[in-house]
Input
Amino acid sequence: MVISSRGEAGPGMWRQEAGAVVRRVAPFPEQAIAPYAIFAGLQVPPVPTEWAPHSHPRHELVWVRGGTLTSRVADRVFTVSEGYGLWMPAGVVHGGRATAGAQFHEAFFAPDRTPFAFEEPVAVAMTPLLESLLTHLSDMGLDAGARARAESVVFDVLRPSPRQFALQLPGDPRIDTIAEALLEDPGDSRSLEEWARSLEVSDRTITRAFRQATGLSFAQWRQALRVHRALTFLSEGLDVTTISEELGYAQPSTFIAAFRRITGTTPGAFFDADGASEGVRNPVSDVQNS
Output
């Protein structure tokens, strides 16, 4: 469970993959890294790995290669794919999941020595320069001068990405059952009317609740959630036909059209190097009607 910003336990996070392990984050070794304004490292989970809800005394920047990272922060789910990172402000409680075999990179920033502040979690464009600098800073043998010069350039080039893949969860008891079922199985194709009958409410009630809580209709919200899950499937090498079936689409072309409508590009082009620089709409705040 995830602790919400209101101090309450939030709803379930996601369907746990077969063979997944859940880890608790060890206490932060602040004394060991105190001399560093930026401390970077790398790990490669051999199996799907989830991290229990936790927070850090330092700002954290995480990014992956060869997989995806999903993070739950209160009533939002962030999906981080290759070419992007997620900035987590110090003290923010979050849980996470990385796909098996993904190179999981992380860098920690001392708040009192970071010349900017993002008050909320934000996606960051992981440019080749930024990645190279942070990899350079993972070398514990750097002398103080070299480290200070590299850190100053990191502060200059670290910028929010135009792509902000954050999905707002409803947090409304009238529709939380629907949201949790779809988080568990995005391919659940029950219609609005079927959900209304199941919950013994009107379809108008469900529609109003989704609009008020997320800014999206029921259909738009489910579509956005499916794109989040599709990013994970794509990073794992699944083909479009398999993904469309897993996500409940009748035809691959329907899935491709939905993916393009939300991201502005096709599934095949999303991870292309050239595509990483394209400005893509926020799938939560700027999705169009299906």
Observations:
- The two ends are 32 Å apart (CA to CA).
- The chain is about 35% helix and 20% strand.
- The chain has a mean pLDDT of 84.
